[in-house]
């Protein structure tokens, strides 16, 4: 097949209208796995196919785009940066949108690869030209690529900012079209993933603007289209910088998360649950939530109700958030924080151990695993171990391999046992008999199946 692809390239280069040959080449490249295609095409003269894009023949363009899309997928971003840069930049100016999208997609692969980015930035004129070619495009993929380029380094952000594209994107945050606004928020969030991106957004006053948008969302009947994105932006910012700084500087964000957690709209509730889990995954975030007192306690009680009944997806997100909120690593286990996580766990129910175990026994694998992760969260904490040994039948439940037959369930149970065994307090609190049984479980592995002895009676059928 490699020989036929090479010969087809030679044949196509010699013909004026190679439609049939292009169709054959398309079939050939699509029939080979991408991993195997790399060695075949790395030495080919791709300009043969790129040159055929200079036409108004729709059929020829579609064939070339399909062929190049497959071949370029097989090549490394560094190879593209070194050998296909000029052709891809030319594709950005092509009148056909499918060619532009092909070029944008491949340039985006280069931008997200460190070695390829170095190759591009060694010649800053190339980067300027790429941005110049893209900035006039309205397609979402073009905007995404600009944001990706901006995220690479302060230098590339500077080029993009000078092209006026970034200011246009920031202006779309408060535009009349709520769908455009939602897309702009997603892209600004992507930009905030880099430190230089966050600094730029702060200098432009974007954090204050988004905080004001959260406040003003109450009076906007279409806010449901973009409000989740605003909350996700600050949730991301809190983890990247500081939960305390973000929540204290932009109180509208924290207040809105609490409101959304008790909102009947499952979309809003789901975003709030995810955000609370992200905030509460850090010690600083736990302390910020604790400071709100009864506000957060009310949210926890709401989370308990959601975890116990309702749509499975929302229940899973709720259980995952709870596990993040009550997780404490060994080095984080100060007396105050242990009291905090224990108090939150007991806010879930009068009998939280039974509540979570009941959820784990329901016939939904994702609920089973999420419930086990809550037990894993409390397993390294002395108070959690005391609850486990004090709950009738719980230690037997942990080592019972018949519960949760799926691989994910076995992995989750194994993680729970590992968390207990690795705790320095488990042997004393659980007792040597239980502790040794847990160590035996761990030694046997997650997928151990006990041998079943069979007895054959002479003369039996």
TrEMBL record:
One of its GO terms (cellular component) is cytosol. One of its GO terms (biological process) is proteasome assembly. The keyword ATP-binding does not apply. Keywords: Acetylation, Chaperone. It comes from the Eukaryota. Signal peptide: none annotated. Acts as a chaperone during the assembly of the 26S proteasome, specifically of the base subcomplex of the PA700/19S regulatory complex (RC). In the initial step of the base subcomplex assembly is part of an intermediate PSMD5:PSMC2:PSMC1:PSMD2 module which probably assembles with a PSMD10:PSMC4:PSMC5:PAAF1 module followed by dissociation of PSMD5. Interacts with PSMC1, PSMC2, PSMD1 and PSMD6. Part of transient complex containing PSMD5, PSMC2, PSMC1 and PSMD2 formed during the assembly of the 26S proteasome. Belongs to the proteasome subunit S5B/HSM3 family. This is 26S proteasome non-ATPase regulatory subunit 5. The gene is PSMD5.
